Amino acid sequence: MTITKQSCLSSRRFLFDYLLLFLLSTAALASIFSDDAEISGRNDLFREILRDEAVERLHELGKVSDADGYLERTFMSPASVRAGNIIRGWMEDAGLRTWVDKMGNVHGRVEGMNASAEALLIGSHLDTVVDAGIFDGSLGIITALSALKVLNINGTLGKLRRPIEVIAFSDEEGVRFHSTFLGSAAVAGILPSTALQISDKRGMTVQEVLKKTSIEITEENLLQLKYDPKSVWGYIEVHIEQGPALEWLGLPLGIVKGIAGQTRLKVIVRGSQGHAGTVPMSMRHDPMAAAAELMVLLESLCKHPKKFLNYDVHCNDISVESLSTSLVCTVGEISAWPNASNVIPGQVTFTVDLRAMDDMGREAVIYELSYQIYQICEKRSVSCIIERKHDANAVICDSELSSNLKSAAYSASKKMIGEVRDEMPSLMSGAGHDAMAMYHLTKVGMLFVRCRGGISHSPAEHVLDDDVWAAALAILDFLETNVN
């Protein structure tokens, strides 16, 4: 084979062109893949922590229960203490300094670049109702810790402009002592010292329950739990919606504009205990029959408040109109003594949970309900005692925090699905939250997360993994935008 000069030049030119094309292609591909890799790497990191790990932690915490076969964690129960220890470990994993206060609240804090600056508090509750779902309360704690863990891994946690503190409140549901917000009310400084002497069904007081877990609390150091309002910038909370609006709208996140006011009553009806077979019907003073009539009365009043309330005597027409759309009333617990099938009860006790957006209207309903209860009890020759166990006024969320949370929710949704056509909705909350107590300390903002069917306080409670991710991304964006 003869190799000419021309063929050598052609070969060299071919090799040169090939090499140039290869280098250009490699550079272009490297540029493309480096950008994709960076985005993918960031998304993989965020997905791994903000979704996968967060969901795993929700399920792990959902297994920490005082009951076999269902989830139950009440104030400072053994399972509640175990859950607090687990959460404390996750706080430390996120780079936070941790401690447990005298009311059993678990705290995790990072000082940032200015330890003396006003702190942003983020929180929710670790206790549950009986036969609970795994997202109520826990979601708000875990998404906050996931966002802070990302900042810690990225090396920006210590560069925050102000301190961030995550609080896992020990009691919000009020199941054990029928007095909600024991944890957050103590931090906000609105928990009365008398709350330490409230007893549970076994006769143990709040103070005794805390002592059993090696926490010595007195009236004096209860007051010391209150945060100085000047040291707090604001409070935000992530929570499942516990309603169907977001699912109906097809959106993962919504902004809370306000929380309904709430009153809890305990009604005690006392009559004459007797033999079920020997006391004639005409001679009975049956508290069970009286209680049944009182419950039907409550339902009628709350379904049709306009039929019972007088504009001039009770409240103005605006309050009555508000009640027509927001008033809800529930009898959630009932007990009888001696609770035997062949005995006319001597006493029946039941609870009333009453909520409305309008505080004046709510008070009007309680006034009218109390009046009607005493009238019925007198007619039936039984005695009635009405005890107010809990009151919380309606709360309006801070406009600035709400606006910032709205922007963060929009940004998170856009990162996940690209174009977002719908504006993040603003919703009212009919359920109570720790934000109601914290409102007495500082401005508050809340983010709602879609839950399937609007079902809550049930093992059927469910949040999509990607919706958990969206919530955590929103908190991360909020921190990066407003605190970093």
Automatic annotation (TrEMBL):
Start and end residues of each Peptidase M20 dimerisation domain: 261-367
Signal peptide extent: 1-30
Cofactor: Mn(2+)
GO molecular function list: allantoate deiminase activity; metal ion binding
Catalytic activity: allantoate + H2O + 2 H(+) = (S)-2-ureidoglycine + NH4(+) + CO2
Residues in coiled coil: none
EC number assigned by the record: 3.5.3.9
Location relative to the cell: Endoplasmic reticulum
InterPro entries: Amidase_Cbmase (IPR010158), Bact_exopeptidase_dim_dom (IPR036264), Peptidase_M20 (IPR002933), Peptidase_M20_dimer (IPR011650)
UniProt KW keywords: Endoplasmic reticulum, Hydrolase, Manganese, Metal-binding, Purine metabolism, Signal
Single GO BP term: purine nucleobase metabolic process
Gene Ontology CC annotations of this record: endoplasmic reticulum
Pfam families linked: M20_dimer, Peptidase_M20
The protein's assembly and partners: Homodimer.
Family: Belongs to the peptidase M20A family.
NCBIfam families hit by this protein: hydantase
PANTHER family on file: ALLANTOATE DEIMINASE-RELATED
Task of the protein: Involved in the catabolism of purine nucleotides. Can use allantoate as substrate. The sequential activity of AAH, UGLYAH and UAH allows a complete purine breakdown without the intermediate generation of urea.
Name of the protein this chain belongs to: allantoate deiminase
Organism: Juglans regia
Lineage per the UniProt record: Eukaryota, Viridiplantae, Streptophyta, Embryophyta, Tracheophyta
